[in-house]
Design goal:
The chain is of the alpha+beta class. The chain has a single domain, classed as Aminopeptidase (3-Layer(aba) Sandwich), CATH 3.40.630.30. It has four helices and seven strands; from the N terminus they run βααβββαβαββ. It has a seven-stranded mixed β-sheet. Helix 1 (about 10-25) packs across helix 2 (about 40-50).
């Protein structure tokens, strides 16, 4: 497995993975990623900003994608119903998704582990959010040791989590 920065030549594949993930969420009745975001433009901006990350097989096939962001998340400034575990700089994971044929293979967990290792070199915590109906992501986040900290609004209500890395 290789965890690396996404490249321009990865954009088409990543956009397909995101579109399929959006369809899976919709089919499961989850009202997340159902209004045209994220999309190819999101991936292009991630690549341009050097925040896009891919997990690939040794063959180079992309199995997972996400954005690992160190510049914060504006919506996290408006946390309600709780408080963050710590103040100061943190990393954020956004747009985490897995290629359809690899759903259930543990690649999202491995992606998150690699992102945490990388982030721990620069910050003391990682934050992530998900839709209240996205039980699969909530289960992953909880199993990785993240703590529910409250709610934020990103398009609609999101459950916000944080994990101390150091």
């Amino acid at each position: 497995m290789i965890f690396r920065e996404a490249k321009i030549e990865d954009i088409d594949t990543i956009a397909e993975i995101i579109a399929a993930a959006s369809s899976r969420l919709g089919a499961a009745g989850v009202d997340q990623w159902q209004r045209g975001y994220p999309n190819r433009g999101s991936v292009e901006r991630d690549v341009e900003a050097s925040v896009g990350r891919v997990l690939t097989l040794d063959s180079g096939e992309i199995v997972a994608y996400g954005a690992l962001i160190y510049s914060g998340e504006k919506a996290y400034e408006e946390l309600t119903g709780g408080e963050w575990l710590r103040e100061g700089e943190y990393a954020v994971i956004h747009r985490l998704c897995v290629a359809s044929k690899y759903v259930g293979c543990g690649y999202s967990r491995y992606f998150m582990y690699q992102a945490e290792v990388q982030a721990a070199e620069q910050v003391a915590s990682m934050r992530i959010d998900t839709h209240p109906e996205n039980k699969i992501m909530q289960s992953l986040i909880a199993s990785l040791g993240y703590t529910y900290c409250g709610d934020v609004v990103i398009e609609s209500r999101r459950l916000a989590y944080e994990k101390l890395l150091k």
